[in-house]
Amino acid sequence: MNPAPARFGCCLNASTLRGTPVLRQIEVAAAAGFGAIELWFADTDAHLAAGGSLREIRQALNDAGLAVPTLIYFAGWFKASDGEWPEIRDACQRRMEQAAELGAGHLICSPPAGEADLPRGAGRYRELLDLGSRTGVVPIFEFLGFVEQYRSIESAIEVMSLAGGGCTVLDPFHVFRGGGSMESIARLNADQIAISHFNDTVPHPAREQQTDADRVFPGDGTQDLRRYCDLLAGTGYSGWLSLELFRPDLWSRDPLSVAREGFQKLQPFAQHSREPRRS
Fold first, then answer.
1. Is the pLDDT of residue 134 over 90?
2. For a tag site, which of 8, 119, 196, 273 has the least CB within 10 Å?
3. Is residue 276 one of the residues assigned to a domain?
């Protein structure tokens, strides 16, 4: 009997291999068994600064058979003043064009630190959505558990509602760190979820003191990740689970060994049901 197809695809977020050149990240992700990779502009920019090209990166992705769900990240847009906005909007368009050249359908847009005016930010997001409809790359509103105001699923829903559309990123760490409930996933529909980053959390240090570096491999912490995946599937989402860690101890290891360990620990949570969407 053939095994049941996975309900989610296995993706590697390149943050997990920070310090590894982008072409090697792609090679490693494919060798470890991942079907997709999320790339960071910091790494693609470094490749360009060293004399490389986006065409080379795209060719490497094609040769490896990897999808690119997102490019990460664009910041500084939510609180932009009227005077700053034209330049920031143009910068976002350039990033969208780069994402499109690499085959990515989404661009992750980070929330502001501190307090920020919701109507202004939602209006800016609406403009980015309109820009995305012209470039073919959809901007994602990301909530982050350690920012002051936009740290929960509910806050992302509020921004999307005022903007009249859009999508967000789910992440067990940010749901936990922001103090929200994983059950809030059920408030979303599949079209509102661009991708799910994936990781586990530990009980110490205290939730309010945790940073990105405290994330651990799926199954190595205390989150009920099977419930998380059931809630995610319940929305109709059938996209990628993207392993996203920010651990200096992993960055100092051989990247292929890290990727292989990550794939092994991610794969059980992706099993059973539909094939992932290749977006």
1. yes
2. 119
3. no
